[in-house]
Specification:
This protein is about 40% helix and about 15% strand. The protein has 14 helices and 13 strands. It is globular and about 60 Å long.
């Protein structure tokens, strides 16, 4: 009889893979937070200033969101108990979707369990082997995985290259003659790219898409709450309402809670309800999450000064890093990478900063290219100038120690 002690582990190769990752400085242990998601928190038992949170506007700990979550839990319970299409649609879910649709200036919204689930839920659902998907080469992993799940043809255009996009679309249309080879063409881009912090050239993308009869989908995860009036995102930032067919957003970054959503036409929402597998086969958000998201929309509409503070802090921090001589790439948003190149150097820099009380996580392959390792920093509206100056002083110390500046 085979026992636990004598049985050969069929997954032993994973341990070997992990050792290879360690040898290549690509292994990333999890940091454990024991304090709140605020600029000053406790990580692995150390008091730190955090520069690695997506909590752009400090809403994760906003009293209105905390109170709304607690009240909803007391009134409606800890869980929703079912998927949306059986018994898991509460009045709160419908109310949140109506509020988000009004906020985004679209006909309808459907919420998902995460932004990742939203991309996985919309892309393969609305496309088939009769269609073509055209994607920016630096789109988020959730878009890439959504495209892989689709049976549609696929093409990639160079990052933010509108002329390159047009070449792809022209070739696609010429391939099929007057009627075209595809039922539809879907162009997908991030609104703000999560690793470099740059903004997609949406006006040019929409112009080209219109010329070739393609639809446009924008993942606005890192633009929601950051760009546009009251944080409505890149479509509002560029005044492109009505020209972007599908908007994907998250409720877990600037909104401060959890989840994702797809925004667009009513028939888009109706079809996703019937056919989107992540929606059909996942339990709906618990009442606390939905109520907190509703409170977050109120805060976005009523406290625009938070976004003003976010951008003021962003300008201050970027200017300080640039004065010190760090390579911050092409960032245009609060996402500011400090590009080091070598994975081991990025890891050493992150560890040394942590010793000085600054949490700035290293980002290495496969999240970024092998030679583009970096520390990705994100300032928030709630950082004080003293905190940001302390961060800059630590970056200067470590940068000089490691001869990066």
């Amino acid at each position: 009889m085979t026992t636990r002690e004598t049985r050969t582990d069929p997954l032993a190769y994973l341990a070997e893979e992990i050792e290879q990752l360690r040898a290549q400085s690509l292994y990333r242990p999890l940091r454990v937070m024991s304090g709140p998601q605020e600029p000053r928190t406790t990580m692995d038992g150390r008091d730190v200033i955090s520069l690695s949170s997506n909590n752009y506007l400090g809403l994760a700990t906003h009293p209105r969101l905390v109170d709304a979550a607690a009240e909803a839990t007391r009134e409606l319970g800890a869980g929703s108990g079912a998927v949306r299409t059986i018994a898991g649609t509460m009045e709160l879910h419908e109310e949140l979707e109506r509020r988000l649709a009004a906020f985004k200036h679209v006909e309808a919204v459907l919420t998902f369990q995460s932004g990742f689930a939203a991309n996985s839920g919309v892309i393969p659902t609305i496309t088939s082997e009769r269609d073509l998907i055209v994607s920016d080469e630096l789109n988020h992993a959730s878009i890439i995985d959504g495209v892989r799940l689709s049976k549609a043809g696929r093409a990639v255009y160079p990052h933010k290259d509108v002329d390159g996009l047009e070449r792809v679309l022209r070739e696609a249309r010429e391939k099929g003659g007057a009627k075209g080879a595809y039922r539809s063409i879907l162009v997908i881009t991030d609104g703000v790219f999560s690793m470099d912090g740059d903004i997609a050239p949406l006006p040019g993308i929409c112009d080209v898409a219109d010329r070739y009869g393609a639809s446009v989908m924008v993942d606005d995860a890192h633009a929601s709450g950051v760009l546009g009036r009251n944080g409505r995102g890149t479509i509002d930032h560029f005044d492109l309402h009505g020209r972007v067919d599908i908007q994907v957003g998250t409720l877990s970054k600037a909104v401060g809670v959890l989840g994702g959503y797809v925004a667009g036409r009513q028939h888009l929402r109706d079809f996703l309800v019937q056919r989107s597998r992540p929606f059909l086969f996942s339990t709906s958000h618990p009442p606390a999450v939905v109520a907190a998201c509703l409170a977050a929309v109120d805060v976005l509409e009523q406290e625009p000064e938070r976004i003003g503070r976010l951008w003021a802090n962003t300008r201050f921090f970027k200017a300080g890093l640039e004065r010190l001589g760090f390579d911050t790439g092409i960032s245009e948003t609060p996402i500011t990478p400090i590009i080091v190149g070598d994975s081991a150097a990025a890891g050493r820099m992150s560890e040394r900063l942590f010793e000085l009380g600054i949490f700035a996580q290293a980002v290495v392959f496969p999240t970024v290219a092998l030679d583009k390792a970096r520390l990705r920093t994100i300032v928030t509206s709630e950082h004080t100038r003293n905190e940001l100056q302390a961060c800059l002083s630590a970056f200067e110390t470590v940068g000089r120690e490691l001869r990066l500046i």
